[in-house]
């Protein structure tokens, strides 16, 4: 009887160890970064920041190159330009033509994680392409990214879509804004100066206080989830 209990205990211990090892190796690796958008508005510099948490899935069973889509958690960085309106750096991967043209030139770090998932790889000049089916290689790329530090400029061609509401009281008036020509939507003297990314341990920032009440409430009629904000289900 005692021998059976010992054998059972060993078996349970082995199963627990295997399950624990699998959990450690299959869980997502999270990267948290702060995005700061700086805009030149005449003689003033206006900015808005947001902290995103991005889970990256490392596929232990991958058998070839993969393209992954991540789901960042956070709110769109928003720059308050006063009476001229609000500028949003959205989570929308649809971009104006001139941005797509620059991205297609191949001047930036290749990546297969979607725009917000790729931003830290681009900013720190680390390849984010799973070119190899090798699991340790995938994991090593992410840990290389996590060892980086300091602020980095993000090329405008690598950004998700910038947008603004033509009428802040009209949810249907959201329009794209070219990062190369903010003046066309906000008036003379308005120019995108920098978009800065920096890895951080700070928590995901709350919703910007400058958002209009109807957007802050996330009404049932107009849902901007996955475009202006993505928060975990509660």
What would you note in describing this structure?
The longest helix is centred in the first third of the chain and has 25 residues, at 2-26. The strands form three sheets. The chain has a four-stranded antiparallel sheet with strand order 2-1-9-6. Strands 4-5-7-8 form a four-stranded antiparallel sheet, with no helix packed on it. The chain has one domain (28-230). It contains six helices and ten strands. It has helices at residues 2-26, 97-104, 114-123, 135-146, 183-186, 213-216, and strands at residues 29-41, 44-56, 74-75, 78-80, 86-89, 152-153, 162-165, 174-177, 190-199, 229-230. It is an alpha+beta fold and 234 residues long. It starts with a helix and ends with a strand.
Descriptive terms for the model:
single chain, 234 residues, alpha+beta, 4-stranded antiparallel sheet, 6 helices, 27% helix, globular
Task: Give a short synopsis of this structure.
The protein has 234 residues and is α+β, with helices and mostly antiparallel strands. The protein is 27% helix and 24% strand.
What's the SSE blueprint?
Layout: H1 2-26, E1 29-41, E2 44-56, E3 74-75, E4 78-80, E5 86-89, H2 97-104, H3 114-123, H4 135-146, E6 152-153, E7 162-165, E8 174-177, H5 183-186, E9 190-199, H6 213-216, E10 229-230
Antiparallel strand pairs: 1-2, 1-9, 3-10, 4-5, 5-7, 6-9, 7-8
